[in-house]
Amino acid sequence: MNIYVLLKRTFDTEEKISISNGRIEDDGAEFIINPYDEYAVEEAINLRDAHGGEVTVVTIGEEDAEKQLRTALAMGADKAVLINTEDDLEEGDQFTTVKILEAFFEDKEADIILGGNVAIDEASGQVGPRLAERLNMPCVTTITSIDIDGSDVQIERDVEGDVEKVETTLPLIVTCQQGLNEPRYPSLPGIMKAKKKPLEELEIDDLDLDEDEVEPKTKTIEIFLPPEKQAGKVLEGETDDQVKELVSLLKTEAKVL
Amino acid sequence: MSKKVLVIGEAREGTLRNVTFEAIAAANIISDGGEVVGVLCGSDSLEDMGKEMIYYGADRVITVANEELKTYTSDGYGQAVLSVIDDETPEGIVMGHTSIGKDLTPKLASRLESGLISDATEVVAEGGRIVFTRPIYSGKAFEKKEITEGLTFATIRPNNIPAAARDEGRAGEVTEKSVDVQNIRTIIKEVIRKSTDGVDLSEAKVVIAGGRGVKSAEGFEPLEELAELLGGTVGASRGACDAGYCDYSLQIGQTGKVITPDLYIACGISGAIQHLAGMSNSKVIVAINKDPEANIFNVADYGIVGDLFDVLPKLIEEIKQMKVNA
């Protein structure tokens, strides 16, 4: 099977967030594979081990994203592709991303493309379904299990807590939800092997795209932090008194009762 | 400049979700005196729901009824809504940022080669342009965004943009459109319902949530009692779900539901970042936890350090008393 994974390098949102010059400060920040994309990498490796074929991990970003691609290779992916937009694009949005991916996948004959259902930084969750539409492939979002038999595919997906059982066929795009699997940690031999695995670097030029074609349709005007929350009131005294005070505060101060 | 804006309505078990009415309110901001047109897909008569959308501020509604639209599929709904978009050529589209909204809108935006702003919590008209606010980085920051070209297309987070008051005096046309729905490539074989009946967690005004501190499935009983008393519903942290105390459909957080109720009472929840991503924008947060160092106290407006099994029964009594006195 010809298996592809869409991967995004993201800021680890467990870190403290600060803003400088109107942007999220990323100096010294920890970057990771978007956790939902990790499920996609793990599932892709499992599918390859069960059905044969090859796993290619694709990312769009800057030179630095090589580190996350090497991690995916160390987990067990076979090949990686970095579409480097550092020199060509100042800004992009999901339209931009998908335009680039559409051009990339044009001649790839993918059987299945897996991605995370959302990235934890910008959290739009658009790329999977958008790409499916461009490639005219069916798309199943937020999957929690997948079973492939020939070209028939059985999927379970999470729909706001309910489980939906879906039947579809390859070629297919899926986006992964927590619960699909437990992503492995790269092993030491895996890390050694990853250094020698092919990592191809492309620019949008190589995909016959120019900057105008991928111009975003949206613009970020401002990034800001939520207003600093005033320190909450930890109530004191006996439990009975605390409860009385709480009800009174909820009624008169917070006005929610 | 006034615009024609489409609102894609969404029902759950035969009733329109509240976020549909909030989407109509957002559409009215975007349309700036233009026209707000509702769209409904389903298999039965959608006339009553169409009227309901009009009562909440839509000017007219187009319904597409077809056996193939009985349950949501992205192909089926995609074809139905695209056909309405072709007829109407709107300048804006709004939908709720729900499971269906998240699945359908990127597909439509991609087909229409348009931008899409997902999960907006605020929509304002500012000097001729429409500015959306949306949370990023797990709710730790916000961005203001606008569409620079083409369709003004957005999904809105439930419980953030107030719906207009229902007005039965409003009149408008509900027209039926027939669409030939075919070639559905993803067949839904079965839906295993896990969500509880009653108040929808993502739209509830009051949420009483339990964490590992609840200790067992039975431990959720006082939380349920308090939720019922306040007309709200029960939620949970991932820890409580993983421990098997409750179903994953109740999970609040980055992976589960992202909610913005008026009142959130966290019982025995430590407050991991993934959990905070799902609830930190709640209007009022109360934390009840034995551990005074628990992270949840950092986002709480009011905190009680104590055993939830001691605090909750007293809180229930006190609120009952308050209701009697009122």
Brief digest:
The complex is a heterodimer of chains A (257) and B (326). Chain A is α/β, with parallel strands linked by helices. Chain A has six helices and 15 strands.
Describe this structure in words.
The complex is a heterodimer of chains A (257) and B (326). Chain A has 257 residues and is α/β, with parallel strands linked by helices. Chain A is 27% helix and 31% strand. Chain A is built from six helices and 15 strands. Chain A has helices at residues 35-51, 66-75, 94-105, 127-135, 188-194, 239-252, and strands at residues 2-6, 9-11, 19-20, 23-24, 31-33, 54-61, 79-84, 112-116, 139-149, 152-159, 162-169, 172-176, 199-202, 218-224, 233-234. In chain A, strands 11-10-9-12-8-1-6-7-13 form a nine-stranded mixed sheet, with helices on both faces. In chain A, helix 2 (66-75) crosses helix 5 and helix 3 (94-105) packs across helix 4. The longest helix of chain A has 17 residues, at 35-51. In chain A, 44% of the residues are buried. Chain B has 326 residues and is α/β, with parallel strands linked by helices. Chain B folds into two domains: 5-176, Rossmann fold (3-Layer(aba) Sandwich); 201-325, Rossmann fold (3-Layer(aba) Sandwich), CATH 3.40.50. In chain B, 28% of the residues lie in helices and 28% in strands. Chain B has eight helices and 18 strands. Chain B has helices at 18-31, 47-55, 74-88, 99-111, 221-229, 238-242, 273-279, 308-325, and strands at 4-8, 11-12, 15-16, 35-42, 60-65, 92-96, 117-120, 122-126, 129-136, 141-147, 152-156, 174-176, 187-192, 206-210, 233-236, 263-267, 284-289, 302-305. Chain B has a seven-stranded parallel sheet with strand order 7-11-6-1-4-5-12, sandwiched between helices. A five-stranded parallel sheet of chain B has the order 15-14-16-17-18. A three-stranded antiparallel sheet of chain B has the order 8-9-10. The longest helix of chain B is centred in the C-terminal third of the chain and has 18 residues, at 308-325. The relative contact order of chain B is 0.12. At the A-B interface, helix 3, helix 4, strand 9, strand 11 and strand 14 of A face helix 4, strand 7, strand 9, strand 10 and strand 13 of B.
